[in-house]
Amino acid sequence: MNNVFNIKRFAWFFKKSLMERPVQLAGFVLLTLAVDLAVYAFAKFTGSFFDVAQNASFLIGLIGGGCLLASFVFGHFSSNASGSSFLTLPASHFEKWLCGILITGVLYVVIFLLFFRAMDSIFISIYHNSLDKNGPFYKELYDAVQIFPFDGFVASRGFMMFFNFAGGMLVGSLYFNKAAFIKVALIAVGFCFGAFMLNLFIANLFLKDVDNAFPYFLVWISVGKERGRLELPGNMLYMVNITFLYVLPIILWGLSFLRLREKEF
What we know:
mainly alpha
């Protein structure tokens, strides 16, 4: 039998991982979906535009829920007893790591996207049906509100942040035995704040009247009453996108594999 990966052994282990803690796993997912529904409804019924409700609920549900689940997947190591029991299960460390990756990066994402699409469609359908078909602006109002695109700018940035932050949570859950979600969240906030301040400092060294600086993408400059932005050159922006879309997530998710492997020795 292959010591690294065996499909039957992995299927057994994956099923065991889901059935061993079904209440906790289902609870995390249902809580996330309920909060997501509440965010969407609150944003919409308090007078916000649909794009605000869509963007907020998508980012909170995908990133927040995904990170919360990622901090729980390897929660076996929160105590020595459960950690030892987990490590002695008849499965390779690659299979144990792959199980956590599939639960966090595939299963949750699929469930969330299906739920979000259904929720978004219902809200938009209600809005479209509430419009006066005989009104002079019916077509403009109807066309202004459409299904949230999963291949749009906000969604692409949401997926990017999810794979980076969830990867960090997976690593953190293996390093911190208690309150991993809070500790990694504080580290992530500190890192983002530090990156913002560093980028703002560098921008002020070379430019005048810098109003704001989004880390590694663009700088906002105020000139009198006007406000404009400077973006990175195309080739540099491409490299930054590649780093955050692929390189950093691969490093983080790979580190979780190496850390899990260390736990087994």
